[in-house]
Amino acid sequence: MGSKKEVYQGCLAMIQMFHVYKTFGKDLEALVDVDLHVHKGEFVFLAGSSGAGKSTLLRLTFRDELPTSGQILVNGRNIVRMKSRAVPPLRRTLGIVFQDFKLLRDRTVEENLTLVARVVGMPTLEGQRRVEQLLKLVGLSHKAKTPPYKLSGGEQQRVAIARALMNDPLILLADEPTGNLDAELAADVIRLLLEVNERGTTVLVATHDLKLAKEAGRRTVFLKQGRIVEEWS
Amino acid sequence: MIEKLKHILAHGLINLIRAGWGGIASIATIGVSFVIIGIFLLLVLHLNALVAEWKEQFQVSVFLDDRITPTQLEILGKRIQNEAAVKATTFTTKEEALANFRRELKGQESLLEGLGDNPLPASFQLKIREGYQSPDTLKRLSAFLSRLEGVEDVQYGQEWIERISNIVRIMKLLGIIIGSVLTLGSAMIVSNTIRLAVYARASEIEIMRLVGATKAYIRAPFLVEGMLQGSLGALLALGLLFAAYRFVALTFNLTSPLLPTAANRGFLESSMMASLVGGGAMIGALGSSIAVRRFLKM
């Protein structure tokens, strides 16, 4: 596992990708020679049209996929060479948010969050306290007992963000979190993500909405046909 | 830890209830399979016990002429004992034979009323050495014995004991083959039910994976569900078998004193019932792990 220097760098850098390629099938190149370094505490937008490889890049980060070649370090650990047994502990250090929220329809907001507490073996009381804190953070304390489908899209996404924060993750990965929301609600969600970032969580947000990224005024990495083509900061 | 165990058991049970008709179909299929397996098991066990008892008890009986003289009797006894095939002999007088018969008919002695003289003959019961227990040897022995003076008849059950032994052997084999086919079929049915359960919970499983649930944590409730289906199926089968057994035993009066005691050996022993239920659980676990492996992509 890497040199001492690499491990040291890993402490400063949260996500490091070295010459990462991902090819699906024979010739569908989703990512081509991607080098990306996200520092601890940073907020980074991953911009590009659909099919540019944003989702693939995120999936590689939470090890839903393995790169065809190249190395990826998350919090200093090489996740490409990681055994599958080590994946659940890795995921417990990540929070993941999707465009379609992925909330369970047959549970209340609260139950959607406590699911995480149960999965990671958090003591019940601690889990309940955490649910309260997070629902307060996303401004939905009064909707704790409501099933998600009775909430607006923006509210659902805030629940999903609260759920992603249950583990107190080092990194929050969001794949088009505003994709299903109108401009106003989208801005709300981004504000919430910025707030989360201010509390110390590294945030990586994939979006096709350039305007949103621009308004937030954070580092933005552009992907086009699987390559990093431009960066603003 | 206890929390997790609670989760796993509770969700196994919840899944089973949510499976509704699918779960019931699984349990019923396993139940039917186990009833058939159980019937074979009961038949084989009973026949085996019967054969063992017969082998032990009636080997060769030499019935004596009522007119035999004490001297003839003495000579005959010695001759029989000198036979290489004979391990031991027991002599039963006419009176003893009647007394034995009376004892066997206990409660139904009235059957004996109206018998004038004692119709039962005195007899020698021969135990045969192990090396001589083949049908051929016994045939030769009985032919020889029946020619001796004072002997009225010689009976040996060996031939049809052999025949029954063969039937038992064939039934065992048949039971094993049919049992394995049914077991495999049951495992497939469970597997199908669990597959539906996995699909029904696909989104929850996806989320659990994303937030860092271990494979075991996700799989365990499905295994529990399968094992519950299996063991409930086996319990159902035992219930049905027991009811049927009681019914048959009462209807055909299997507790009759005229039957050898092996027929009265009762229902399956509790250790055997436990292994059947355990076997059901294992079939359930097998079916469910097939489903989980194939349909729970992780």
What does this protein look like?
The complex is a heterodimer of chains A (233) and B (298). By secondary structure, chain A is an alpha/beta fold. Chain A has helices spanning 4-12, 54-61, 87-91, 109-119, 124-137, 153-165, 183-198, 210-216, and strands spanning 13-24, 28-39, 43-47, 69-74, 77-78, 94-98, 171-175, 202-207, 219-224, 227-232. The radius of gyration of chain A is 17 Å and the shape is globular. Chain B starts with a helix and ends with a helix. Chain B is built from nine helices and four strands. Chain B has helices at residues 2-19, 21-57, 70-82, 94-104, 135-146, 158-200, 202-210, 215-251, 270-295, and strands at residues 60-64, 86-92, 123-128, 151-156. Chain A binds chain B through residues 62, 87-92, 94, 96, 102, 104, 115-116, 118-121, 123-124, 163, 166-167, and chain B through 3-4, 7, 203-204, 206-215, 217.
So, CATH architecture of chain A?
Answer: 3-Layer(aba) Sandwich
Could you tell me the mean pLDDT of chain A?
91
Determine the N-to-C terminus distance of chain B: 23 Å
Radius of gyration of chain A: 17 Å
* SSE series of chain A: HEEEHEEHEHHHEHEHEE
Q: Report the structural category of chain A.
A: alpha/beta
> Level of helix content of chain A?
25-40%
Quaternary status of these chains?
heterodimer
Unreliable stretches of chain A: 1-10
Largest interface: A-B, 22 and 16 residues
Please state the overall shape of chain A, judged from the principal axes of the Cα atoms: globular
**Shape of chain B from CA axes?**
elongated
- Terminal Cα span of chain A: 32 Å
How many domain modules of chain A?
A: 1
Helical fraction of chain B equals 55-70%
- β-sheet strand percentage of chain A: 25-35%
Task: State the name of the first-level CATH class of chain A.
Answer: Alpha Beta
